[in-house]
Amino acid sequence: QVFDDQGKDVTPRPLFQPDPSSVAPKQGKILAASDYSAVTGSGFLSSFTMQQTSGVNISLAGPFSSSHLLTSWNLSDVQVRREEVKEQLTNEELDRRVDIYLTETETIWIFDMPSVVMSVESEDAGKVLERNKIYVDVCKNRVGNERFVERMMQTLNGAPKSKEVQCDKIVTEDKGIMVTSWDLYDSFNELEVEPTSKAEGRRVTIVSSNISLISKEHDQTASSICDRDSTTSSVMESALLAKIHEEKEDHSEAILKSEKFRQDLFFMERILMENIFQPKLAVYRQLPVLIEPVDMSNTGDRATTMEEADTEKEEHEQEEQDEEEQKDVFVAPSVLSNLNKAPEEFVPPSLELLWSYTCDLTNGRSVSSMAWNKLNPDLLAVGYGEFDFKEQKNGLVCCWSLKNPMWPERVFHCEHGVTALDFSMLSPNLLAVGMYNGIVAIYNVQSRNNAALLDSSESLDKHIGPVWQLKWVEQDRGTAGDDKGEILISISADGRITKWFIRKGLGCSDLMKIKRTVGEKKKSTGEKERKSEALISRQAPGMCFDFHPKDTNFYLAGTEEGLIHKCSCSYNEQFIETYRGHKGPVYKIAWNPFSTDMFLSCSADWSIILWQQETQKPILTFSSTTAVVHDIVWSPKSVFIFVAVNESRVEIWDLSISTLDPLITRFATPKVKFTTALFAKNTDCLLLGDSKGQVSVFELQNLGTSHSNKVRGPRRRGGTFWGLPVPLVLP
After folding, report:
1. Based on the number of CB atoms within 10 Å of its own CB, is 310 exposed (0-12), middle (13-18) or buried (19 or more)?
2. CB neighbours of residue 444 within 10 Å
3. Where are the alpha helices (DSSP H) in 222-329?
4. 672-688 mean pLDDT
5. Sorted alphabetically, which keywords does the UniProt record give (predicted)?
6. Closest to 247 (Cα-Cα) out of 184, 205, 210, 216
């Protein structure tokens, strides 16, 4: 026994604890000779069998003897006596039925990971697919949704786990080759020669043939060299030729993908377009048309006859084309009667089609807006988008150049339809684009990257309605008026006129919130009727605006209610004046560039109205057809000429000739509608956009402009206005 310091028994105990119910064998009584000597083999086996049934398992091998028995047991407590051997089981006990019940224990979960995958044949598969679809839609509409609010949140980083992966052993090999001095020299020269054309490719072939000749000469002069050196030189020669052949193939592919090759193709395409469109471009730029001279010294009568026949055929085709175009152009009889010319001296004005800006990308898209670049007058930006909510699709912006009328210089794809665009004046490379979903984006036309430079998708004060018009405006930033800055102004269907700033991003602030106004007739009604009216929005949707050409602190804004408000950038709480005359939405407002007190407006009520800034009542009303007027543009060369775009035709008005009928009317082709118009810079040409994606360039022929663009103040004396007869259809 072992005791600790406190007197406790800490003696180690055996791990095996015998069953207390079993009979413990007596110690110290090993089998005597008399006990086991009388035991026969059969008796010992029977006793062993009984001991085995009582729970003791013994393995015996070989003959049964006393020595084997003592060696296999090696236990001091084992005692074999014949009187302790139990009797065997009877047949009745063996035939007795024993019931054994098997029960399942409680399941112990050591690790449980629920599955994130479900079979499509399960019962809840439909619900899971629907939830996944809703989640995908929420992820798509997250950015740009007016209910989305960006917030910051701190999360805990998960514990990192390091993993090691055994990879295959990297095998390295050393290789060498014997070369001569001339091999090094020729290989160095071949690396400098880059075959950039077929001629250079032939040069490489010649160089390789020269290498073979040099190798042959070298073999002849070095006949004293051993066979090993000659074998090495031949192997080197074949390797060098194979390397040159591979380099030539690689260079051919690199040439096609090189930037210089693309630039050469670009200039070649420009030259071909100049040759093809040279007569029409000369007419556009008001230059004489060059006729290619023909050398008649080496041509016979047959060539002359064929040339004359081709010339007559071309003239006949041109005459037929002119006749078809003249069928679409109509000159009003009242206009002809007002012209102070003899019939034999009169040449009717007309529109001649020069070419159309169109390609596969623009087919089937509607032209929504056009704008010239302020620095490069040959660069035209065209926006493509639908105005109807049901026909919306992806938008497109193309930058066309006069040097290639068949394919745009730049193409910008937009997620939503383009409704307005304009070039910057101080930075002509910046193009502002307004879209149908209210986004304002700025693109850099100098870069080949099609992504927007800036956009208002992340701005909290962005428009929530279509941006119907936007424009870059110069405004004074200093008190002296010498320091001028440029801001971007936009008007939207959400009733806001907003100015945008380019700082770290695209920020904005509201110039004016267009409030709904109640007419005079509605004001005279009772208060109960006014209280019963419920307005969806307190702000009227804005449709268009235009800043004063001389004083950019004042501007006009047209609304969907048919009203025109005169506003100031210095005061955004109230309108200065309100012009009432239209019965439908005002689609366009345009100040006269020469008479800065006059402006035009067009509307969905089929009318065009001429206004004076100081008078709130219309001066002249033009209504020649029962169609919506989408756009109006003043001529940059005459104070009296403007263009009106209806759905099915384009009208050119000259107020110095007639105020009742347009001077020229051109009808659109069937199933095509005109959408917008724009005068060309420094030339007598007009650009018209339609609903099929074409921008047609027309030359204004025989359209006389006024020699003086100075206009006297508006006065009505003796039935005249601007020195012109006033029609009787005044409002």
Report:
1. exposed
2. 17
3. 227-257, 259-276, 278-284, 301-328
4. 91
5. Cell projection, Cilium, Cytoplasm, Cytoskeleton, Flagellum, Repeat, WD repeat
6. 205
DSSP code, position 343: T
What are the CA-CA distances from residue 352 to residues 151, 320, 321, 327, 461 (Å)?
Answer: 59, 13, 10, 12, 47
Length of the chain: 731
Extract the tokens encoding 640.
């009296």
Whether the per-residue pLDDT at 166 is higher than 90: the answer is no
Place of tokens 């955004």: 572
Comparing CA positions, the residue from 133, 110, 129 lying closest to residue 118 is 129
User: Which DSSP symbol is given to 75?
Assistant: -
pLDDT of 526 higher than 90: no
- Reported as type and span, the H/E element at residue 83 is none
226 burial level (CB within 10 Å; 0-12, 13-18, 19+): exposed
- Which residues make Cβ contacts (< 8 Å) with residue 631, sequence separation at least 6? 587, 588, 602, 644, 645, 675, 676, 677
Measure the CA–CA gap between 640 and 705, rounded to whole angstroms: 8
Q: What gap in Å lies between CA 185 and CA 173, rounded to an integer?
A: 27
Residue that has been written with the tokens 């994130």 in this structure: 116
- Which of 292-306, 463-477, 522-536, 681-695 is modeled with the greatest confidence? 681-695
The DSSP secondary structure of 2-48, one letter per residue, reads -B-TT--B-----S----TTSPPPPTT-PPPHHHHHS--HHHHHHHH
Residues 6+ apart with CB under 8 A from 230: 219
The set of residues, in sequence order, having a beta carbon less than 8 Å from that of 672 and lying 6+ positions away, is: 690, 691, 692
In sequence order, what E strands does 117-259 have? none
- For tokens 């250079």, the residue is 200
Which segments within 477-636 are labelled E, that is strand?
Answer: 484-492, 496-502, 506-513, 542-547, 554-559, 563-568, 577-580, 586-591, 598-603, 608-612, 615-622, 629-634
Q: Between these two residues, 277 and 336, which has the higher pLDDT value? A: 277
3-state class (DSSP) for residue 576: coil
Does residue 193 register a pLDDT over 70?
A: no
Dihedral in degrees, nearest 10, Cα atoms 318, 322, 323, 326: 180
Distance CA 123, CA 36 (A): 77
Instruction: Quickly count: other Cβ atoms within 10 Å of residue 588's Cβ.
Output: 25
- pLDDT tier, 468 (very low <50, low <70, confident <90, very high otherwise): very high
Tokens of 383: 């926006």
Average pLDDT, the chain: 75
Lowest mean pLDDT across 23-27, 173-177, 473-477: 23-27
Cβ contact 689:695 at 8 Å: yes
For residue 286, the one-letter residue type is Q
- pLDDT the model gives residue 346: 56
Q: What is the pLDDT of residues 178-191, one digit of tens each?
A: 888 888 888 888 87
| Residues 455, 459, 463, 465, CA torsion sign | positive
Topology of domain 350-517+537-701 in CATH is Methylamine Dehydrogenase; Chain H (2.130.10)
Dihedral of alpha carbons 262, 264, 269, 274, sign: positive
